[in-house]
């Protein structure tokens, strides 16, 4: 069983690489963005609160995110090959909470950071915005998401580097090239 945290700026390709990993290794994909968008679509009070944060490019509070992840970890099938965390943890507090949640289940996770240049990320998100229908894929909100990424989220990679559970890859080129790098890490790590 291998749990993987796919980490990187918005638009770095975490969702795309998750799909490749699901196909090749049968891992469970846990995308917090998708879970939050589902909550918004349900029309609940919580969904409305989340929508106003996401559409401005801001983060959902840690305690709500940690609660959500804890619930999803508990509801995973027993025979699961491992989980891909996509969009979580996004703060150091979330990272500490995830370590504890996994420890309780005698599990760990490795982080794979997909590095993509900022210009490339902005180009990709603007392109995606033409068809995604996502209210946060517009220039001003993308800028705010990137600001938050650098200030609050990027330090999370230091947390995993410190715990020797960290790999960095270059995601500037094709999807296939990026996946090859991820695949190499997983086969060297010997658990997939
Ligand atoms: P992207 O990686 O392209 O920014 P996501 O779909 O992962 O998109 O997330 C969309 C939005 O959902 C984020 O900008 C943020 O507002 C919210 N979100 C997702 N994951 C988290 C999290 N772990 N903590 C707080 N907010 C989150």
How does this structure look, described?
With 192 residues, the protein is of the alpha/beta class. The chain has one domain (3-186): Rossmann fold (3-Layer(aba) Sandwich), CATH 3.40.50. Helices cover 58% and strands 12% of the residues. The chain has nine helices and five strands; from the N terminus they run βαβαααβαβαααβα. It has helices at residues 14-25, 32-41, 45-55, 62-74, 92-104, 118-132, 139-153, 155-162, 175-189, and strands at 4-7, 28-31, 83-86, 110-115, 166-170. The protein has a five-stranded parallel beta sheet. The longest helix is centred in the middle third of the chain and has 15 residues, at 118-132. It is globular. The relative contact order is 0.20. The mean pLDDT is 95. Adenosine-5'-diphosphate binds at residues 10-11, 32-33, 36, 53-54, 57-60, 65, 87-88, 90, 94, 136, 145.
Helix content range = 55-70%
Query: What would you call the quaternary organization?
Result: single chain
Count of domain modules = 1
Could you say which structural class the secondary elements and strand pairing correspond to? alpha/beta
The chain-level mean pLDDT equals 95
Largest sheet: 5 strands, parallel
Strand order of the main beta sheet, please? 2-3-1-4-5
**Helix-strand topology string:** EHEHHHEHEHHHEH
Tell me which ligands are bound.
adenosine-5'-diphosphate
How many distinct helices? 9
Q: What is the name of the CATH superfamily?
A: P-loop containing nucleotide triphosphate hydrolases
Number of strands: 5
